[in-house]
Design a protein that fits this description.
single chain; 6-stranded parallel sheet; 13 helices; alpha/beta; 354 residues
Amino acid sequence: MSIRVVHLPASTPYARKLDGGGIEAVNGQTLPDGATVPAAVSARWLVEHLPLTWVDVVHLHHVEFEAIDDLERLLSESRDAGVRVVHTVHDLRAMFVSQEALEERFRLLAKADVVWVTLTSGAASEVDRVVGSPCRAIVIPHGFVVHPDDVVPAARPHEARTRYLLFGATRPNREQLATVVNWSLAARPEDSLHLLMRGISPAHFADRDDVYRLIDTTRNDSRIDVTMRGYPTDAEITSAALAADALLLPYLWGTHSGQLELAFDVGLLPVVSRVGYLDQQHERLRDLVEEPIWFNWTDGNPYAFGERFVEALQAVPDRVAQRSRWDREAFAEFRRSEHEEILAAHVGVYEVPA
């Protein structure tokens, strides 16, 4: 019988693929009371649909926006109902709240003896320091973003131009403005940039004008094509990636990157800041994928960050032109095998007494 798991939330490809192989994700299912478990389920929603007899495991992925009281009650109700709680630490540094607020949630989870999972060994070592107590985190890699059977690459034409892609939500750790401005000023006349964006919220405009400047830059450069979506579908993201040569990943900080895994999945050249443990993500795949173009936005004079990014951009056309043939089938076979191992590892984690 499959282990019934609710992912909080299940709105990312990473969480959605944790289904099958002995795991039954209940997000999207209808409960006996007639309610449908949301993909972006919250702690409050869960405690409003007690008792938790319809689930065996609560798998927490992102707790930054969860109210402490709701999270505390969810942990209590889960313990009373015999429901295991697992927390995958995707980010060790806060994105939208204070670092103290994030660590307060981590300490609450540690006090409840949840099972901790990280995506890299580096994060497993760091989480103890951030939480302030031994977490004994289990390392399970990220794996694919796009299932290898869903990657049907069109032949990338040999063109003089280089096609760049930048996508994702507007977040404090992603430097969209400096990236687009530098690209506009440094890229060759024949190059193009596809900016695939999620909706801009009122909060993004509060006390900052970089959104306005980003809009001005995109409107004044005909080489930049903008696609705005409320929440781009997996198919839209995959299609955009397959139509590009290089993926820009301008992180100011971060622990891991699903977008980096996507670049590996579809054979894109990543142009990425060396933050967090992204280098460990590449290291485990180094025999199957090419080396990204790295740039450093983590130390030294912050006024030199632009120089470093432009230097990375200037290396892209030659790297794209000189790329060797990618053994997609070998990589796809690795991803399939890896996914089976990831599912099996999660079954083992879900069966660990919390």
